[in-house]
Fold these 2 entries.
Entry 1:
Amino acid sequence: MRYIPKKHRDPQRAVPAGRCALCGGELYSGSSCWRLCGRILCEDCVLQWVLAELAPYHTVCGEVRK
Ligand SMILES: [Zn+2]
């Protein structure tokens, strides 16, 4: 029997290159992600994490003290 290599990799068999620190979702090589403060976050979680980090600066318009 002869081995014939596949021309295209099967995405279902791809090994994850990492996991999102928030949701635990698998991150694959070449996919978009963010490395913030030593954590790797997926596209779905990065905004939620950034807003939580910026929470101390959150205020209500009209209540800002000088
Ligand atoms: Zn995530």
Entry 2:
Amino acid sequence: MSERSAPTARKAIQDLRALLDRASRAYYLDNKPFMTDREFDERLAELAALEAAHPEFDDPGSPTRRIGGEPIGSFRTVRHAVPMLSIDNSYSAEDVRAWAARIEKAAGAEAGPLFGGGAAFVCDPKIDGVAVSVRYEKGELVHALTRGDGEKGDDITENARTIRALPLRLSGPGVPDVLEVRGEAFLPNKEFERINAEREAADEEPFMNPRNACAGTLKQLDPRRVAARRLGFVAHGRGEVSPAEWADSHSAFMEKLPTIGLPVNAGWRVCRGAEEALAYIAEFDGKRGAMPYAIDGVVVRVDHFELQARLGQTSKSPRWCIAYKYPAERKTTRLTQVDYQVGKTGKITPRAVMEPALLAGTTVRHASLHNFGLIAERDIRVGDLVVVEKAGEIIPQVLGPAPENTRARSSKPVAPPEACPICAGPVEIEEENGRETARRCVNPECPAQVREKLVWFAGRTQMDIEGLGEKTIDQIRAESGAPLARFADIFLLKNHRDELLALDRMGEKKVDNLLAGAEAAKSRGLARVIGSMGIRHLGASNAKNLARAFPDIRALMGATQDQLSEVEGFGPVRARVVHEYLHSEAGRAAFAALEKVGVDLTSREYAAPSAQRTAFSGKTIVLTGTLDSFEREALKEVLESLGAKVTGSVSKKTDLVIAGESAGSKLGKARELGVEVWDETALLAALPADRRPAR
Ligand SMILES: [Zn+2]
């Protein structure tokens, strides 16, 4: 990179920035993407490398500034230039009519000439996200604030910068000197599902709805974590704008925003009078289910800014604006049973079985009851009429007994299982503030856990073992003599071909496909393997982070808890849980067995070019004598970080002895066994530059 001459580099940087900006605009504004996410990420990485080599061309507006900066300790509080009021909610057509009548009365005689009879309103779909105010000066993004108390908000600029829909620099005709735009940051439904699937895979509590997930994300102190979640943004309102004449009505404002790079919800419309607004509201109710993000209502505003100013505001909210909220889809039905699902980590999740109810277009028979603490808190009992709601239009859940519910005197609270409902093994209860948050079967051989783990491991987004679906796993376990309880057993199925062939509906072709699928999966590498094992707090993305930090399973096993907590995406809790698993009997046995059957447990694909396998990876090394440049413990750490195993005595298994001054019997033993011996000079030459001691 450094060989590139400055003018060439500058040109390359400029071209990449322009290309990536164009790609973002095409994606978020024009809805005509011309680049895949992957391609975008690759070009972004290319640009970041160029910028790192040429800091002289630094630019705060560069798309690389979206990757996320350093974590911060806490959020700064900043005053809003124009207070960020909340909008009054209404829940009925009558509320909207009454509000519109007040407006038309206040507008008086002017309503006629100004609006051609009946006040003009702008109707805009209301996204169920988090309100954010973003300030641009001379077109540059200067800060982004949360609403806070309306007067002052939290400075979340670094997090907002990672939102690709939000331009870092405005461009286009007539960018105003100051533009404070209010909008909604949100989590698209697909991204919400992806994050929740990942959280569930890592056995973390899933988010209740996209809004909670978005709010939690924006409050992260580490912007890199925000960048890893693809938040969206649409603009829908204004704070300070200078010059003020930039737009004289909300419709003009909404028309201009996309021309300078700010996305709006394209469904907004000018409506004349309350009835037109209500028709829009009814019409949009039918469309919102198909939107890629959650819409929970419609905001109706007076279009003309002059009239807005005349109407003014109450202490809490503007008089010229009202939000109509769609009623959440709720249904009352009868809870007939509570059943249990035992997950791959042993978590026992209660699930409501109900009389079928039609909810937001789908028939719902099951709903989440989350955990036994919640059942007790809401006093939900079998036989109750219960209210079911689709939270964030996605996951049905039981809110609690319906108001009209009557109970037989004999009704009893739901008794949480004292033993695992599948294996009758012991359970462990987790509590938070005295409330039960989880209950787990702790028997590692629990058949339910074993089955769920195998199904998960073989799944498409994990090890992707062709031909080994849920049904086949059940069939092999139940009907064949082939053992299938450990991950490693999958790779030993080839020794049981005849037993597989004897199974129903398992022809030669099917069996051979499965066996070939298992062979092919052996080379997926460390990240896929550990991300597929259902280890608590370890989903696919953190498994990749581990693979980037450690060259192979030995290096990973050699890492201390502290070293793990330094890995990107890891904190003390994740580090502890993962460390515990790696060193548990079950963990050690699983990795040893996988290695024995020939599964690749290295992370070659993630090794940066400079950090590729060194002379030390996978070697068993013994240190003896004293070295000038290292304390022995420090050198041990360095070698382990490079994937070596450092042991105390020389044996036939020793690959290398590093001998310093006055080395004793170990050196003699090494010579006797013919083990390779290095002195300090050889050691220093072989160490990567960044691991050599500082002088
Ligand atoms: Zn069990």
